[in-house]
Amino acid sequence: MERRIDCCRFCNIFDKIYNYEIDKPFACNEQFMAVASIGAMVEGWTLIIPQKHQLSMKLCYNEMAFKSLVNKIIPVMIEKYGSLIAFEHGSNKDGSLTSCGTNHAHLHLVPFYDQGTLLSSYRPRMKWDTSHSSEIAEKVKNNEYLFYYNLKTSIEWNNPQGQLHILKEPVSQFFRHFIAFYLGRSGESNYREFPFLKNAEKTRETLAYANALN
Question: Which pTM does this prediction carry?
């Protein structure tokens, strides 16, 4: 899929066209970049974004460039913020609700301590399968999906075994709603209405400095 610089915010970032100062990547390599996320309900909320314009991360998880960047960032984030979770809203078509308004793949890394309860309230109604990240593409095929990984026992991305749900219909900002609920900020989960730019600014400043020292 070709890059569409005229209408894709993430493609623009790769070309150094920024809507916000926080859009400037604080870490990158030839294929991926790490940026502070708008809508960050907590400081440290980070996005890992592929340079290639594509709708989901399912084909990225086995790429060495992806692992190299993520494994540089995760230890720094854990040192600065503590426990992390990772999640993706895996879209399949432009304009899908699942993409949360961004038609370019991205993985969320979020400072959050999960004791295993984040998905528990939905388990009776949703089928979650244990899945290695390397298995996602084969399992979901052309379906949209949700992927979640709790990093509480790991400081690296090494084909992690997370939770995978294949969507029957699109869903918007699924994990954001859960995080907002657990933070007591249920009314502030929509990143367009609540961009939390101050948190994003602190994230970029902290992680840009920390990564410069590594």
Answer: 0.93
